[in-house]
Amino acid sequence: MPILITAEELKSLIESPETVRVLDVRWRLGGPEGYPEYRAGHIPTAVYVDLETELARHGEPHEGRHPLPDAADLQAAARRWGLNDGETVVVYDDLKNLSAARAWWLLTNAGVADVRLLDGSLRAWKEAGYDVAAGEAEGEPGTVTLAYSAEISLSIEEAAAFPETGVLLDARAPERFRGDEEPIDPVAGHIPGARNAPATANFDSSGRFLSAEQLRAQFEAIGVSEDRPVAVYCGSGVSAAADAVALTIAGFDPALYAGSWSAWSNSPGRPVATGD
Prior knowledge:
CATH architecture of the largest domain: 3-Layer(aba) Sandwich
Strand content: 5-15%
Strand order of the largest sheet: 1-5-4-2-3
């Protein structure tokens, strides 16, 4: 099943008799809030998804800033968005899919067979000359059935041990990985043994994902290979999903540590590495 969809392909789907559900997942660390921007202008038929409350739940500090939602809560949210079983779902944001990837990863792991990311995000839609709609999209509630088929996130213990047998990637910016600065979490640095693979490096100048060949070469250059498992984390499990998308496009099968650095750094006694 393809992961990416172009603006032209999405417009054709929206205008065709086949049902497609479009989800607007605009969110940025530190704001501004996505909902007012959604109301000001979104892809026609798109429903707004609140990353903080629908793609995550409130948890304790040791669970990280964006703990995974319970499957029942995710299903209730997805039904509000109008999702039904068997439909194509397209997610987008205005941030090179760095936030929309969280929806792709969650829905894929909850049993939605066809979830795609709008390559180039909202920017690609606008650059194609297509109109946006204001206000709220109207639609009927859906009846989709969602369930996590297994533990979809590594535990903190599994993340700690992962570099012994596999490659653990940190999707944050290099300065946060090195521990030069930490604007959010209580400790600066990274999980010992992790390697830096900034999620922002997966895109070209237009905000589209690099080709599968380019992504594969990029990951292989930092040690990812077919004969070792690979996993990824970030600050709170959001941009890590964008690395997971890129790894999947490149032909790998990544695991994800959703608690990420925000959980690790709030768990007393966990070792911290700094530098490259």
